[in-house]
Amino acid sequence: MTSSELAPTLPPLPAAGSCALPHLGVIAACGEDAAHFLHNQLTQDFALLDMQHARLAAFCNAKGRMQASMVGFKTSPQEVLLVLRADLLAQTLKRLSMFVLRAKVKLKDVSAKWQVLGAFGSDPLLATPWTLTPHGSAWQVALYPAAGVARRLHLLPANEALVTTNVDLQDWLLGEVLSGVADVQAATYEAFVPQMLNYESVDGVNFKKGCYPGQEVVARSQFRGILKRRTYVMSSPVALQAGVEIFSNTDSSQPAGLVAQAVSHDQHGHWALVCLQTAAEQADTLYPAGSPDSPLRLHPLPYALREDI
Questions:
Q1: 136 exposed, middle or buried (CB, 10 Å; 0-12, 13-18, 19+)?
Q2: How confident is the model at residue 4 (pLDDT cuts 50, 70, 90)?
Q3: Which of 115, 119, 268, 282 could form a disulfide with 156 if both were Cys (CB 3.0 to 4.6 A apart)?
Q4: d(Cα 107, Cα 82) in Å, to the nearest integer?
Q5: What CA–CA distance (Å, rounded) separates 261 from 174?
Q6: How many whole angstroms separate alpha carbon 125 and alpha carbon 134?
Q7: Distance of alpha carbon 51 from its chain centroid, rounded?
Q8: Given strand 114-120, what is the order of strands in its sheet?
Q9: What are 282-297's pLDDT values in tens digits?
Q10: If DSSP codes are grouped into helix, strand and coil, which group holds residue 28?
Q11: Which strands form 297-299's sheet, in the order they lie side by side?
């Protein structure tokens, strides 16, 4: 499967509408040291975060492996909300809490206080990814578009009436894959360093900030040119799941990649974000473990990779 054989066609997404996102939860960091504390733990700069922008960030172990990914933003000078996969929330909260020590910050699961929604459609105030806008007591974050359609993350207080949800969840999950921005979930815990998911190219890593767990490994991967894996958009004739290994016909003895995120859509089939060895991009055939007769198709990323920061 060479670059000249890229499959150009992407399935259409709804031009507008929203749906609830039950797979996401929310952590609140509250206190005068909230932003500074998160700045010292995550891959992005929270110390200089204003209230007009959000951050995509990763929480890594000492070896630079991602234990969680999240979208974070300030709701006040002393509160930061982190939206992340619900299946990793409890353990992420526990590990973050271990580093609080004397910092003036309290961390807690506030998922029950918020409704998390995904919305398709343009908003003039949210033209750039990671732009943040308040709507009364609700918040909207611009995400990376998918198949040319703008996407937004909404947080609405749980006690407020739910806005109309007229989009199926599988459409939103397909949009997540087509956006090229994967998140970390339980099946991929500690499977990737941030650049393997292209996080340096979608504003998920700040290389100018100070230390955080795994910072030396992440920086070394970037500046010494030793990164050998990237994430790609792929379609498949069979259903895929996060954590499934991908093999190449040139070497069936060891996996060439790992599924980072996947969706099966009733109308548009099976799609995935696959973290792949860059050398395997030129393989004639890539296939999921156990399905050598089910070749994957490579599709162009919707953004440019930043090879040099």
A1: exposed
A2: very low
A3: 115
A4: 10
A5: 10
A6: 10
A7: 21
A8: 17-20, 114-120, 149-157, 138-146, 132-135
A9: 777 999 999 999 999 9
A10: strand
A11: 286-288, 245-248, 257-265, 269-277, 229-236, 297-299
Q: Residue 50 pLDDT more than 90?
A: yes
What six digits make up the tokens of 57?
Answer: 């960030």
SS3 content of the chain, % helix, strand, coil (to 5): 20, 35, 45
Distance CA 285, CA 276 (A): 13
Distance CA 71, CA 60 (A): 15
- All domains of the chain, ordered by start, with CATH? 18-181 (3.30.70.1400), 188-295 (2.40.30.160)
Q: Which residues of 210-229 are buried (b: 16+ CB within 10 A; e: fewer)?
A: eebbbbebbeebbeeeeeeb
Q: What is the pLDDT of residue 21?
A: 97
Instruction: Using DSSP, state whether 144 is helix, strand or coil.
Output: strand
Rg of the chain over Cα atoms, rounded to whole angstroms, equals 19
